[in-house]
Specification:
Number of helices: 10
Radius of gyration: 19 Å
Helix content: 25-40%
Order of helices and strands: HHHEEHHHEHHEEEEHEH
Strand content: 15-25%
Structural class: alpha+beta
Length: about 290
Amino acid sequence: APGQCPTDGPWKSLDGPWKQKAFEDLRARALDPMRIDQGPRNFCGPAAFLHVLATVDPGSYLRVGQGVLCDGKLPHADVKAKKTFLETIGVTTGIFDERVDFDTGLAAADWVPEAVLRQSLNTWAPPTKRWTGSQLTLPRHMEKWFAEILPTVEVTRYVGVWRLTGWLLGGRAPKVSSWAQGVIAKVQEGRAVAALLIGTLHTARKGLVPRHWVTLVAAEDGDCFIHSYGRYIKAPCTALQRATWVAYVATPPAPPSGCRALCGHVEKLAHKASQDFPSTRGSGPVQGGW
C-alpha cells in the first residue's frame, strides 16, 4: 500500500500535510470506492474509470495512485514529461504547477489521478481550472484507459446506435434498449461493473445529449444503483437504459474484489444509496458535466 514518496514529487499543491492525507484518502477509497469524487471539475469520466478500477482491482488503483502522486506517471506514460500545445508555447501552465485549494472539498486523492488521466490524452490544453473543456472525457478516452491500465480485464463496449439513427431518420427511440438490458443483467449477477455515458437521467424524458459519466455497480427488481459525485444513487433501470449512450462493461476473471462486500448485496447498497431520484433537469448530482 502506498505510504510516502522517496522525493518531494512534482505537485506544487501537494506540500506539507496534503500529500500524507492524499495517501490516507487513497487507501480509504481502495476499501470503499464510493468515496471517489470528481469534485467541482468536469472529471466525471476519470472518476468513473477510477471507480471501476478500485472496484475490480484495488491493488492496481493504489499503484496508479502512488505513481501519479509521487512521479506524475501512469503505468504506460510519463505524464509529467508531456506538455499540451498551449503549455509548449507558454500560454498557460499545466496541472503540476496549478495551485489547488483542497479546503474547498476537492480531495487531492481524487484530483491528482483524475487530472493526470485527462492530461495523458490531451493535446491542446491542460485540464486545469481555466480550461474546462479539456476536462471532458469522450468514449475513445475511456476506451484507451481501459486498454492501457486494465489490460487483463475483459471490457465490452456497447453503443446505443438507435439514438443516432433515430435522430437522423426522424424515428422514435424505443423505451428500453435490448443492449442495455444485457449490460444490467451482467451487473446484476455480480460479475461486472459498467462505466456509462448518460444524458439527463429523468423518468419522463430521454437524455437527448450525452453529458455525464457514471458507474453502474448493482441492480435488482428494476432498480439500478449508480455511482456519481461520491455517492450511490438508486434510479429506475428503465430511466437509466433510456439515458445511456455508451457503456463499457468490465468483467474481470474473478468476481470484482470490491464487490465482495457490495455487489449482489443490494440491501447494503440500498442503505447507502440516496432514495431521492432527481426529477428536474439540472437538479441532483447526476446532472453534472462530463
